[in-house]
């Protein structure tokens, strides 16, 4: 993959993903984290347009151009699937999101009364512009989209100590994580992974069978990991639950969703903030107060003793 080009790592978070697509002009869509891997959980959120799966990236051999580990490659040039190769680091979260959104904006919507996703003029223009592009060129066009990159970077964690252009989707142990999308298009369940050479077909799938079908695929994928591995995250792409609440007159649901949106807005504000200066000033204030009271040395000794106790317990 090429250099990150200014794309920062973002969290796998329902509030982040929802706000990101709203900033891109997408309407009446939100993300919901799935805390259990079962079909009934997905079905309760119906209509579900697709899911975003986050997992620890295993350094397997280079992908085969003929056979994926599960499913079959869709190599037909006439395939009506929006698929872009991942050409840069750090953008795989947004790329997975768009892999669902841009495949559910018209006749491909999985049915069951679900309206097509309103993707907005910016994404509509991008999709039309790249309609005839091969996957690698479409990936380059995505990585060079200033609008998409700006929306993506708006949710990066603020830090004065990190070079944003060098970030990777790693945890504290140095593991690399990757996002992919699963969505039904034209009656077929597709796995859309920008690190693969083609979309991967997992067979026939409609709105009614999507929950069971995608859970089966995910279970097979998770089974390839060592026993005890739990670092996975699954997010459903669903219709804005506030719309449903207004249509059905469910006041309790509407109030709950409005509270959730306010919490998301607050959390996203915190993500954009750099608190280093505030923490520094607070520490200077505390030190000054202890020094003024004549208790500075006592305070430091007590802190050292507590630290030693914690080290001894480890």
UniProtKB/TrEMBL annotation:
GO terms for molecular function: cysteine-type deubiquitinase activity. It comes from the Eukaryota. Residues 7-223 form the UCH catalytic domain. It catalyses: Thiol-dependent hydrolysis of ester, thioester, amide, peptide and isopeptide bonds formed by the C-terminal Gly of ubiquitin (a 76-residue protein attached to proteins as an intracellular targeting signal). The record marks 193 as: Important for enzyme activity. The gene is UCHL5. InterPro entries: Papain-like_cys_pep_sf, Peptidase_C12_UCH, Peptidase_C12_UCH_sf, Ubiquitinyl_hydrolase_UCH37, UCH_C. GO terms for cellular component: cytoplasm. It comes from Aspergillus nanangensis. CDD domains: Peptidase_C12_UCH37_BAP1 (cd09617). SUPFAM superfamilies: Cysteine proteinases. Belongs to the peptidase C12 family. The active site is at 92 (nucleophile), 178 (proton donor). Keywords: Hydrolase, Protease, Thiol protease, Ubl conjugation pathway. GO terms for biological process: protein deubiquitination; ubiquitin-dependent protein catabolic process. The keyword Hydrolase applies. Pfam families: Peptidase_C12 (PF01088), UCH_C (PF18031). Gene3D superfamilies: Peptidase C12, ubiquitin carboxyl-terminal hydrolase. Residues 253-284 form the UCH37-like C-terminal domain. This is Ubiquitin carboxyl-terminal hydrolase. The keyword Protease applies. Its EC number is 3.4.19.12.
